[in-house]
Amino acid sequence: MSAAWYSRNPRTRFAVGPRPAPDRYYYQTDDGWEAPIWRYPPRPDAAGEPVLLLHGLGLSGVGFGLQEQDSLVDALHDAGFDVYILEHRGDPGSIAPPRGAGFDFDDIVTRDIPAAVARIQTLSGWKRLLWIGHSMGGQLLYAALSGQPDTIAAGVSLCAPVRFETPKSHARIAGLAASLVPAGWSLPARSLHRALTPLTGEALWSSLGREVEGSLARGMMIHGVEDISGGLLKQVTRWIASGSLCDRDDRLDYVEAMRGTDVPVMVVAAEGDRLCSPAAARPAFEVLSPERRAWLTLGGRWGHLDPLIGARASSTLHPRLIGWLQRWRGRCWTEDDLPDARVGG
């Protein structure tokens, strides 16, 4: 397929490839899963507060650093941070236990995130970390704030829906689908996207990344897409059926559970995002502390992927995200906010 594409576009770069892999460390969960944490260590002269980057559903952490110069990873590193990209159970680099079963969003929240945060605390030496989550990564930020806010200094949520407005008939269909999805099954999104890339190119992703250059879009399709577990799909359909970001039993609303948290959070939404409208993201902002929250609406030319790899992200959005983290980076220290009060320091 790619050969045919090159015959029609001989002078155009087909796809951006991933950069060389950074340092890799593993964390282990209490139920036996192992998964990697990819680290871009801070410059020798930098303070090096840790920033955790978490990807969205069906995507991988590749999108945070796919560009060779203008990526979010580069911007954070240049600002003196210690950058970590997390993989969780089910991601390609993860290792399942011998009897590894299906999993869902709640398993990542209660098992993967605490283990990964503890590993980053050990690696970095800091008591708390900063967090940037895109899509499901932002939803995981909210869930973590509802359960272990003391480990988070500040956060940014990018295009993360928390309310799901659907007609009642569609909600009933979603509820039925949730009951039928096998937990151990996976949607083979990775192989499907790789096969379709030469055929569809930018067209398939134009609604996701409205200003994403063609080779970057194809690079994401080849390198930045992951399979989706049946358990995760099952819980997403549960959210659609209930209308809220809830646990698997629809007993806990993760957004309501973080109401009043004093952790500073910036919530970002885009008017051109078909997967997460500003209205779908706004309820999370409303429950945050008024003194420690920020809201940013991007215009109609911003789609779901543009905050990561869009043409204007590095010049327009990334500086604002970094400015927010720099404002609160002192919270990575202990309650006394002393710059030399690190874990083990």
What does this entry show, briefly?
By secondary structure, the chain is of the alpha/beta class.
Structural account:
The chain has 345 residues and is α/β, with parallel strands linked by helices. It has a domain of 227 residues: 3-Layer(aba) Sandwich (Rossmann fold). 38% of the residues lie in helices and 15% in strands. It has an eight-stranded mixed β-sheet, with helices on both faces. It has a two-stranded antiparallel ribbon with strand order 7-8. Helix 4 links the parallel strand 5 and strand 6. Helix 5 runs antiparallel to helix 9 and helix 6 packs antiparallel against helix 8. The longest helix has 20 residues. The N and C termini lie far apart (55 Å).
Order the strands across the largest sheet as they lie in space.
Answer: 1-2-4-3-5-6-9-10
Highest CATH level, the class of one domain: Alpha Beta
Number of DSSP helical runs: 13
Considering the protein shown, what is the CATH homologous superfamily of one domain? Alpha/Beta hydrolase fold, catalytic domain
Rg (C-alpha, Å): 19 Å
* Strand composition percent: 15-25%
Structural class call reads alpha/beta
- The N- to C-terminal Cα distance equals 55 Å
User: What is the CATH architecture descriptor of one domain?
Assistant: 3-Layer(aba) Sandwich
Task: Give the CATH topology of one domain.
Answer: Rossmann fold
Unreliable runs:
3-8, 336-345
